[in-house]
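Late entry, evening session. Most of the bench is empty. Finally got around to the prediction I had been postponing all week. Sequence below, unchanged from the version circulated by S.P.
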Amino acid sequence: MRLKLSKEIVELVSVMFYQIWVRRNAFIFQNQFSKLESISIRARSDLSLFKENNKERSKCAVGTQERTSIPRWEPPVWPYVKANFDAAFDKEKECMGGGGVVIRDSDGSVQAALTFYKDHISSALQVESTALLRAMELCSELGFNQVCFEGDAKLVVDAVNSKRVDNS
């Protein structure tokens, strides 16, 4: 069974995931506990505020001479899927990193997604490489064999696309 979620539901769920993460961090790092009900309330409030601010920005952009080009996601050509991966590295602690993967089809529908957290990371390059590896593993597990991988870590992308063997 394949379920197609509306854009509004995906947006709300995304903001709710963020609020769950914020609640978790407040509990772990600041010993602050908040009720579960606050997640939904804050998520709806944040999403509403975000949408309102974006409306204001788009109004300001009308009539301006210079427009900045915003990179937009491009769907893969059927029958391919696209696996976008990204990661972050905590420079302050220099031992924590995390990332995520989103796999979408040629219609832009999300086929799968995952996030990960990893201790004992030594560099941004290492966690970005881990994100690509997790993307590849997820595609393999799900049986996707026609995949475009897309990430913003230039060193990782260049290394994968290089014909030169680097054993370092």
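Two things to note before I forget:
Residues 15 and 45 are 10 Å apart (CA to CA).
Strands lie at 81-89, 96-104, 110-119, 147-151.
Will write this up properly tomorrow.
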